[in-house]
Amino acid sequence: xxxSQSHSAAAGENPxxxxxxxxxxxxxxxxxxxxxxxxxxxxxEPEADGQLLEVSMGPHHPSTHGVFRMxxxxxxxxVIRLRPVFGYLHRNHEKxxxxxxxxxxxxxxxxxxxxxxxxNNWAYALAVEKLAGQQVPERAEYLRVILAxxxxxxxxxxxxxxxxxxxxxxxxxxxxxxxxxxxILDLFEELTGARMMCNYMRFGGCRVDASPAWLEKARARVxxxxxFVDEFERLLATNEILMARCQGVGILRPELAVNAxxxxxxxxxxGVGYDIxxxxxxxxxxxxxxxxxxxxxxxxxxxxMVRLLEMRESVKILEQALKEIPAGPVMDPRLKxxxxxxxxxEAYGRIEAPKGELGFYLISDGGPNPYRYRxxxxxLINLTILEDMCLGHSVADVVxxxxxxxxxxxxxxx
Amino acid sequence: xxxxxxxxxxxxxxGVFVTTLEELYNWGRRSSLWxxxxxxxxxxxEMIATTMARYDLARFGGEVFRPSPRQADLMIVSGTVxxxxxxxxxxxYNQMAEPRYVIAMGACAISGGPFKQGYNVLKGIDRYIPVxxxxxxxxxxxxxxIHSFMTxxxxxxxxxxxxxxxxxxxxxxxxxxxxxxxYGEHDLEPKSNPGVWNAPxxxx
Amino acid sequence: MKTVEQIKAAIEAAVAGAxxxxxxxxxxxxxxxxxxxxxxAVEVARFLRDDAELALDFLSNVxxxxxxxxxxEETVTExxxxxxxxxxxEQAVEETVEETRQxxxxxxxxxxxxxxxxxxKHGPVVLRMRTVNRTDQVELPSLTPxxxxxxxxxxxxxxxxxxxxxxxPDLRRLLMWPGFKDHPMRRxxxxxxxxxxxxxxxxxxxxxxxxxxxASEAASTAAGEKASEPAEAxxxxxxxxxx
Lengths: 414, 204, 243
Hints:
A: three-stranded antiparallel beta sheet, three-stranded antiparallel beta sheet, globular, B: Rossmann fold, four-stranded parallel beta sheet
């Protein structure tokens, strides 16, 4: 990766970004609260707590990616304590799942991570297929991969666009990203009927077959995507302001990342090579050759670059999948969808969603509704170490760091 | 009372433009609506897409999205309003200066939407604040949002400056501050604002 | 990776007194789980994380489940000694009786943990812990000191189910506001009545809406009577004045 440019001075300091000379008082806490030193936020506890400026960033804030609130305690501009507050978009998705049948929950999964509705659909379909032991025909698997990678592409582009908008670029990279997103949403609309809430995957396949005309259109669009990534990279990756603001900011160590359950591009930017597409090999991902980009430093710039490089890898997978897609049915004709009652038991199915590991845990009691329907939200769990990453940084950096985590509130709060 | 159309065109040919104060006032107000950058959930993404290059909302005057409620005219409630968020929404509405308008975008803002059976979902933002335009859809297409914008503009055009139907900011007796609900032990208190919303009758 | 039985054996070898039990999973997913006793759960968790072979350093998912009380009807054959009159003399006689009894098996709350290994790239290993009952004894040890990713997820389970995780550094509600009193994801939670309206209402929504309408009509007729009383009194005065 082209990281030979000089890092900002902040990286030369204490790598956690803490103010030099601050005391770590974790070891002096009473026994009942003592936890192992390295997996708790290393907060400093200044004596005069009343002199801290308490700022509530959110829930209505232009840069918090939705209704997300952070209670920040500042000493001047430096963050001393940060507490995220959730629940402003809690729409009790899990309770609804218990009250309706398995298939009725599929449109609700669209609204979890509302940028990537097709990935959510796939994760849920995968979990139910594991629960019921269903097989998926090959053409449907290829279609799922194509749609998931298109989703990943437009999600990463939009995420980079939002990150740079928060840096003050006032929407121009976001316009570029949304221009490509609109082209991809056109493809979705033609195939599934909706731009965003696609509701396309079913247990055992996909809802509707893709016509040869659609596949041609998809090939044409995918052929134009590398040019866009080149343009994006040329404009952004060596931009002075971006490098000065992003390098050395919000560093996440790999051991803490793994222990805190961080997944997705955030984990890979810290140098941990864990991509569920390679590890679990769900679907037919083991047929495609693609690389997994890893970062070195775990800062905001690494996350940005990992997402950019993952866009390139997505294009590679798309080219291969569009070339190899076989003919055939997209649903197993023997499967019945109505009155679908899987046998009692449970299953946990997970995929590599663009934000991280999206998992669904289902417990069936033999009835038409699940007994327990649980979503493992990558965005919420990636926020566990938000405080650790932000301590000692300034408020402007907090905005950047929370933007680089790439959260979607529909998923955090469900 | 508008100026006679024939007279307008005749004078216009001579290079003289006539209009009423009301038309001019409303034209200025409706062509420069400043929406508040207020997205809650999925509909917010369609709102952002509407402001982007393909469906450009700036053509209709909605160019400047202000994050601060003090500087905005229009609050597009896009997404599900949860009970935890409702006090913040009402407080933001109170902080907006008149003339202010509300567009309830999407099924969730109108009536709770697909998440209606929710212990944390407010079944429609019109329970606490007056809503001017509702857009159905989940999420409504960007074209639908533009249509709602135009509907609101027509509504503003039709507001008379004097008399009963005058806008609130010209009415000294109009209520400006709406009561903010507080978190109760099981639900918000009060459950709705009776001055703004009454439960419709169920006829079964 | 080891099978579930092998993992159970490894845990029992490493942590003395750990009560581990295999809970089979009848579905085709084959993800059997291990039920561990809350007493030694933290040591078991530490062993699972630090073991060289298992290296389960990644906690993926923490779920809460609510199992309600179950009514079980069973037929029990019982032999009892009863005093009976036999040939005019009271004697102790043995009697075999078959009776159908109904008993309530108490419900409990459960926390399910899904563990993976990033170092060895295997998984999942599913752990379960059960509380004693659903009402007052709802404590479980928190595994946040072992895996930091449990921090927010256990808070959410506390918020929505009411399981109290002892040893959690910051156990507050996550999704609902702090003054909220219920645990909404429990199976017996009843949603508050907030004037829900549906054009084609049915079941509980219809009942509640009709109740509200009746109450509001009664209130308006009472207000109407009060309003009409002074009018009637004025009428009477008028007629008296006439007469």
